Amino acid sequence: MSISAGASIVEKAEMARAAALKLATAPTAEKDNALRRIADALDKHRALILAANNKDIELAKSLVMEGKISKALLHRLIVDDPKIDEMITSVRDVAKLEDPVGKTLSAIEMDKDLELFQVSCPIGVIGVIFEARPDALIQISALCLKTGNAVLLKGGSEARNSNEALFELVSTASSEGDGIPEGWIHLLETREEVNEMLTLNEYIDLIVPRGSNQLVKYIQSNTSIMVLGHSEGICHVYVDRDAEVDMALDISYDAKVQYPAVCNAAETLLVDSAIAGEFLPQMVDRYLQAGVEIRACPKTLELLRGKKEIKPASEEDWHTEYNDLIISIKVVDGVDDAIEHINHYGSGHTDAIITENKKTALKFMQFVDSSSVMHNASTRFSDGFRYGKGAEVGISTYKVHARGPVGLEGLVIYKYLLVGKGHIVAPYIGPDAKEFTHRRLPKQFSF
Prior knowledge:
- By secondary structure, the chain is of the alpha/beta class.
- The chain folds into two domains: 9-227 and 407-411, 3-Layer(aba) Sandwich (Aldehyde Dehydrogenase, Chain A, domain 1), CATH 3.40.605; 235-381, Aldehyde Dehydrogenase, Chain A, domain 2, CATH 3.40.309.
- It is built from 14 helices and 17 strands.
- The strands form four sheets. A seven-stranded parallel beta sheet has the order 10-9-11-8-7-12-13, with helices on both faces.
- A hairpin with a 7-residue loop joins strand 14 (394-396) and strand 15 (404-406).
- It starts with 8 loop residues before the first helix and ends in a 7-residue tail after the last strand.
């Protein structure tokens, strides 16, 4: 059982802070060995994980029937053998990645024998709040361990049994070897603990919320701790007049239907008026066959006036993250109109253009103000694992520190290390001040 069992949130935060100082200097080999032990534990204890998840699923089904949670949330909650395989692969991939801690980012000679190094280091203690997806616990834990950060985890109450089982496996497996301090990972159990965690800025360096727009906005409004995350995933696919139709059909279908419950699924399809007459009838038929509910602009309704299943779109639809088999469709007058719509209604997450015109594609990719912009590819590629990061702690739509899928590089910062030989500032001040050399050095920090 974890050492945090029965501890208060303040005690957990204190233990995490103490562990973070030790974990920051843990050797890469020890961190990677711990990650491999976690992967092995996930494989060995599949039955335990599935049994715990089944308890959550049965309760969630009754909540869906009562209208208390959505079917999309229930879908995100499910853990099966393929999902466990993904967890194992993700953890092992993180173990294979280069350690981002202790890297010399720059080296400058300020003067003879006075050398300044910028070196990467862990953030410290990270609080992560996530909803529904138990596999998020594994992704976050693996990334925090690799980057030398302690972590306080709070999952959704609907995944309580799954999260407890996974947490115990991670905590136990990681501490079985040398080099990894106990207390680097803790699981919070109640909403009250979350509210208290948001006040612990003397212990916690960063909060990462993963979940609904309401969750993220609540966290942002109730803490002075830095928050990293995104509030919504309103993603767009724009089909340009120079798109190859079959490609556009496949990408638009994949972006919406392949997994509609995630934040990188498309919510709005924009279609150039020059290609709408050819493209939209085929696309809408394909969506309807997949059970997608369509909400359309007046021009789309006019083009498809024989389709009684289609509903008119409201202003609210352009602002909505459905996380379900629902899509809003709008006919636009070219790429400039599409860019304007996306930058007005989008959430800065992920948007795609389908076109064979490279000039148009470049304009779209330069002017759409989102963390990921795709050309002739599905929005569903916006993911830390698919980007080669091993996993992701979340998606950031902010424009400072980290943006897009946040992997290892987003969980480290840097410190400046100055090495001298008795240097003092006085000789560099005044009318006869000595000049700094400020010469770049091709060397790594070491003693």
